[in-house]
Amino acid sequence: MDFNALQRELKMDFKVKLYSESWNDSSLGNDKSKSSITNICSQKPQLKWDDSSSPDCDMRIDSPFPKFNEQSESLSPRSYDHNNQIKIHDQIASQARGMLFDVAKHKDWDPQSMLSNLSFLEQKIHQLKDLVSFIVDQGSLVAGQQDELVAQQQQLVSADLTSIIVQLISTAGSLLPFVKSPLPTPSPLSGQLGGTSSVERSPNVGMSKASLHNNDGSKGLCNSDQNKHMIDCVSDHNCTGKTNHSHSMSSFDDHESKDEDDVGEGDHLPPGSYEVLQLEKEEILAPHTHFCLICGKGFKRDANLRMHMRGHGDEYKTPAALAKPNKDSSSEHMLMKRYSCPFVGCKRNKEHKKFQPLKTILCVKNHYKRTHCDKSYTCRRCHSKKFSVIADLKTHEKHCGRDKWLCSCGTTFSRKDKLFGHVALFQGHSPALPFDETKGTAVSAGGETAETSNRIGSIELNVGSNSSEGNNIQNVVDVKGGADDPACYFSPLNLDTCNFGGFHEFPRPPFDIPEGSLSFFLSGSCDYNQNNGSAPSSDAFS
Amino acid sequence: MVKKSRVVDLEFNPFDLLSEEILFDILDYLDHNPFDKKSFSLVCKDFHTVESRHRRVLKPLRSELLIRAIDRYPSVERLDLSSCPRITDDSLAAISNAYKFCLRSIDLSRSRFFSNAGVSNLVLNCKFLVEIDLSNATELTDSGAVAISKASNLEKLWLARCKLITDIGIARIGIGCRKLKLINLTWCLGVGDLGVDFVAVKCKEIRSFDLSYTTITNKCLPSIMKLQYLEELTLVGCLGIGDEGLATLEKGRTSLKTLNLTNCDNMTPWGLPYLTSRVTCLSHLNLTNGSVVTEAIANSLQNLPKLQSIKLDGCHVTCSGLEAIGNCCILLRELSLSKCSGVTDEGLYFLVKKQKELRKLDITCCRKITQISVDNVTKSCTSLTSLKMESCYLISKEAFTLIGERCHHLEDIDLTDTEVDDAGLMSISRCTKLSSLRLGICYNLTDNSLIQVGKICRELVELDLYRSMGITDLSIAAIASGCPRLEMITLAYCKDITDTSLVSLSKCSRLSVVEIRGCSSISSAGISTIALGCKQLTVLDVKKCHNVDDAGLLPLANFSRSLRQINLSYCSITDVGLLALANIACLQSMTVLHLKGLSADGLVSALLACSGLRKVKLHACFKSLFPQAFLEHMESRGCVFQWRDKPVQDGVDPWVWRHTARMNANVMYLLDEV
Predict the structure, then answer these.
(1) Which of B311, B322, B256 is nearest to B286 (CA)?
(2) Where is this region: Disordered (chain A) (predicted)?
């Protein structure tokens, strides 16, 4: 355990630094701080967008956990005395679960073996608990350490964790005897301590990887992620059926991609998980991103470049040269690239303490133009809406003026017969005149909605980036999106759309989503209890 | 009037004894002649005041006098502005301020220059408006419609040719004016199914719905047919209405009585059975310019037990179809087969065989029928009051005597372009109730028969002797003395007519329409006698009366204060005469073509002086001679110029004329049949 002790020290350092950066004083991981955050959030639920992950995740730490305990009765109650314990427990369980899909599907369910497996897991969890609690206890001493050291620590910790996880996964597999994974069989975890490459291959394991990163980067993210896994395990165990499972899986990929979009800053990640690139403003605004190395001609798409390259010689005509680079087997092992916005102060800028990287160059371009550039494209119909991305303009123009049929109640309709149906239905309503002046407003109103719906896409991108100190524009957009979108996350009726609010934000299994977002706002909601069938949600807040 | 004015001379004014109520009662009886009330009001100040307060209906003849007229008549309920082409928002404001509580009906169908704001002002002030005629308000937009929708008491609304009004406007009217009983949306091209449907849903009280020449389709028919009280539906020229729409109509009890499907080209014969099985209360059906009427289609009419009137003008009818109509429609009172191809003696025989009650028959331009038909028709339909058989020139002279012998109740007969002769007309003159007699292009007629008509037909109101060349002054004298009610006479191209006829006609005080076109013997003297005698003269056509000059126009200008319309083409009029016409305040239409004595300047001054003018027909050569400012000014007054560029026409031989006319008509007829 000498090695482990070192790791503990290192990890502890890192952890403390992280807390001091992103959580200020409040989230040292004890229950008090958690509940306070939860309270804040329930009072001001719109923070959900702005504050990105922290409160929701925190809450989530508590909620699914007792449930897991109930399933695994042999677990000692001590294990969740402390938040960090819980976290690690979670983590391990989730890692284990990732492995379940490999191992468990060939076995039949045996309560005896399961019980022993659970006991084993408990043991392992205790080990991890000790490790992390040590880190926490020693946190203040190493707060001033430099980044390089932190990176080192991080590497060590992750290596340590991975080794534990590998063990756990192999044993935990027996927990779920009849998992029928709809996914292609994930490749077994490689022996590497970093585990990155194998992690990338399968969404499940990728998730565990993400949770690993999160664990390093942000406590909240990590927890929510792990909880998700826990619940998945539980639900699988409870024979919730293949439908649910496949559902969870199908949305899993999506999750993961968002995950990756939202993961913490690269500096704190283990090297090799992904690298952060930052393009210069000029590069971003350049019309072309792909340039021919021979003649220097620029292209917007690399496919076009490849087509172009054929003219430079036969060597560029081979299937390999023409193939999409991403599909290469080698690229699978390459580092994932994430992008940072060159605008300092932007949440998408790597200097930001809640940095959330952009996934592709296209995202960078659109983000930069939308957020930091003048809106130079004006709608030619309504002459009021402006856009900086021409595609946004085109989308807007498609719908602009469509809702020209206006009722006296202010409702607009894209079709006249709909307006007349509306007017015929409601006493006292009458169709409003399409005056030039009213037309203008009507059009702009329609345009607004159109634009809002346009921006939903960008909201998805920006969701995680809207920090509490996020700029006003983004907030406004979000509010609009929330108001326009039926996804009004206060309403329990709109659970599904609710989910989407948190869906992209928090890596969380789909099962958890309705309960999670619901319980977040409605404590003690029956939905939550029904689904979990065990711990009352009030426990979550205790 | 005369008696009363004598009484005024006495020292004691017995009129003081007449209470206002009595005077009102007296005034109630003075309805027929507009001059009576004028005289009444001139008796004394009291009478003037009483008459002013009594008047309920006001029809101003000049826009610029409107304000004063409003001042004088405080309790007008019905304001007919059809003679005022220029009604601005200010005028409407004055009207709405003056008649806030009494105005019930306003006719703005012939007026222009008012805007949405004026309509809005009117509707907001006059809260008890029940009828608004805004036809031809082509500038009226949806905001005008919104203004109209504030008139919650509105029951009748005419919006013909308000092309800028859209579904939105109509819907607003439907929401605002729930009491609408009549709505006319003819030529409202902006109105479609949605608007009509909406109005039909909202205004349940609608009795009469006119949707002619709109773009409506079958979609709005169901809701129209659900209107509980709908009695009259006019769908002239609705090309969007087809058989499918009728087929999908619910079988239900509708109150529809009158249905007009004229020019609905997409209605095929096969749609009619659907229709007849759905609207069983129908009494008047108009299928003008419809499709072929065969036996099968006609048989479907038996579903309409209350059918009284069928118009099949311009349809192709078959013999069996006519027979079926004759068998199915027992109660038929009115039948119009004008311009129907396929009407033969045989078909007509089967048709009228059982129609004992037929009152009105129109067989205009059924050129195949002969005296046999006349025999059959007169034999069965003895109660005929109206018989129109223009251009049935195969009917022999002898047949016309049968009409007079058998149909004693005739009031209206049209024998234009037939072979009717003196014997026939003398027989017809037995119909003492005859009020309208049309004898155009009847070359066989002479004075003998017309003198007889003048002696017997004392009820005659309209007499048309267009190109009946055998007529002389004697006939006219007899008519003028025998028919005091005569209001309209056409003596066009009766070459033998002279001033003497006009002198005798001047006794007919009710005469209002005089057409003496092409009577070259008529001179200014005759015109002046007419002007002196016929104070109610409104239309005068003296085209090609070469002898009429300024001397005739001066008395006309002085005495015929009611003159609205005058045609002076080819006369010997100069600037002086024309300028004198400016004295006629209500002159509205003037045709002055080929006047050699006219100068552009004289014309300009005359036209400027005639402030009530609305339509002027001029030779195109003047267009370039008039200053642009003048044209703009006239236009702003509401005057429309019609430029004609016809060469000078000389008289043609009447026989040649008739021959060519018939030939032309036949060519058209044959083309129709093809």
Answers:
(1) B311
(2) 187-221, 243-272
C-alpha distances (whole Å) from B467 to each of B478, B486, B517, B652, B653 are 19, 19, 10, 12, 11
Radius of gyration of chain B, Cα coordinates, nearest whole angstrom: 27
Inter-residue contact A308 to A299 (CB < 8 Å): yes
A435 near B CB under 8 A: yes
Q: pLDDT (tens digit, 9 = 90+) per residue, B66-82?
A: 888 899 999 999 999 98
How far B154 CA sits from the closest chain A CA (Å)? 18
Residues from chain B contacting residue A434 (CB–CB below 8 Å) = 142, 168
Q: Which two structure tokens, joined as six digits, stand for A71?
A: 């399933």
Predicted-complex ipTM score: 0.77
- Which alpha helices (DSSP H) does A263-360 contain, by range? 281-285, 302-309, 319-322, 329-333
pLDDT, one tens digit per residue, over B231-288 is 999 999 998 888 887 777 766 667 889 999 898 888 776 777 888 887 888 899 998 8
Q: What is the 3-state secondary structure (H, E, C) of B520-574?
A: CCCEHHHHHHHHHHCCCCCEEECCCCCECEHHHHHHHHHHCCCCCEEECCCCECE
Say how far apart CA B375 and CA B385 lie, in whole Å. 16
What is the rounded distance in angstroms from the CA atom of residue B407 to the CA atom of residue A489?
A: 88
The alpha-helical segments, DSSP class H, found in A373-435 are: 390-399, 416-425
Number of A:B CB contacts under 8 A?
A: 33
Kindly give the residue spans of alpha helices, DSSP state H, lying in A173-241: 196-201, 203-217, 219-237
Token pair recorded at residue A320? 């390999």
Q: Nearest residue on chain B to A407, judged by CA atoms?
A: B168
Tell me the C-alpha distance between A215 and A157, whole Å. Answer: 10
Of the candidates A167, A164, A202, which has an alpha carbon nearest to the alpha carbon of residue A184?
A202
Q: Is A223 in contact with A61 (CB distance < 8 Å)?
A: yes
Residues of A in contact with B168 (CB under 8 A): 431-434
In this predicted model, what pLDDT tens digit does every residue of A337-382 receive, in sequence order? 788 888 888 888 888 888 888 888 788 888 888 888 888 888 887 7
pTM beyond 0.80: no
Instruction: Please state, as a whole number, how many other Cβ atoms lie within 10 Å of the Cβ of residue B158.
Output: 22
Hey, what are A38's tokens? 């939860």
- Phi then psi for A172, rounded to 5 degrees? -65, -15
Write the DSSP symbol of residue B339: T
Q: Are residues A423 and B175, on separate chains, in Cβ contact within 8 Å?
A: yes
A248-284: burial string, b at 16+ Cβ within 10 Å, e else: bbebbeebbebbbbbbbbbebbbbbbbebebbeeeeb
User: What does DSSP say about strands A405-406 and A412-413: parallel, antiparallel, or unpaired?
Assistant: antiparallel
The span from the CA of B314 to the CA of B448, in Å, is 36
* String of DSSP letters for A411-424: -EESSHHHHHHHHH
Q: Which of A247, A280, A275 has the alpha carbon at shortest distance from A263?
A: A275
Query: CB distance from A313 to chain B under 8 Å?
Result: no
- How far is Cα A403 from Cα A419, in angstroms, rounded to an integer? 10
Residue from A394, A380, A427 nearest A408 by CA: A427
Burial environment of residue A321 by CB neighbours within 10 A (0 to 12, 13 to 18, 19 or more)? middle
Chain B residues with CB under 8 Å of a chain A CB are 142-143, 146, 149, 167-169, 171-172, 175, 194-195, 197-198, 201-202
Q: Which residue has the tokens 């303009």?
A: A393
Closest CA to A516 of A203, A48, A95, A26: A48
Token digits of residue A164: 């534990």
Q: Name the burial class of residue B258, with classes exposed (0-12), middle (13-18) and buried (19+) by CB atoms within 10 angstroms of its CB.
A: middle
CA–CA separation, B95 vs A13, rounded Å?
91
Residue of A nearest to B202 (CA): A424
Tokens linked to A487 = 């996804």
